[in-house]
Amino acid sequence: MGACASSPSSKTTITTAWMKNGGGGARASESFRRPSSIMVMDMAGRIKHFKQPIPAKTVLSDNPHCYLCNSESVHIGTCMPRVPDEEELIPGRIYFLVPLSHSHSPLSLTLLCDLAVKAGSALSNPKKYHTGTNGAAVRLVP
């Protein structure tokens, strides 16, 4: 693809696309519920919830060909920035588990919308979770 560079004037954050609901175009504060747990979503829409703060490297140890990106720091036309391995993931935040092969590709509007729809669906349709051996509450999204 292309080189990854950032231009403050051309950034569009995920919160813009993700906050609007399909029918009414409600304001962000009306249509968005922040999760109380740490939510990690892979590119296929599979989600893991962690109830306690954990270092990024704990999630990455099960996913060696991926990196984590905080959903609040993605911008169209730029690379999805990595969360440092030692950084503690914060409850109430949504993180994307991104394949390393995407690390040098600028984020497209199409991918941003795809991620927003999957994450929005997960937030609006809570289901029962199963606790895994590492303490993660796991829910598979179809």
UniProtKB/TrEMBL annotation:
Species of origin: Phaseolus coccineus (Scarlet runner bean)
InterPro entries the record matches: PADRE_dom
Name of this protein: DUF4228 domain-containing protein
One Pfam family cited in the UniProt record for this chain: PADRE
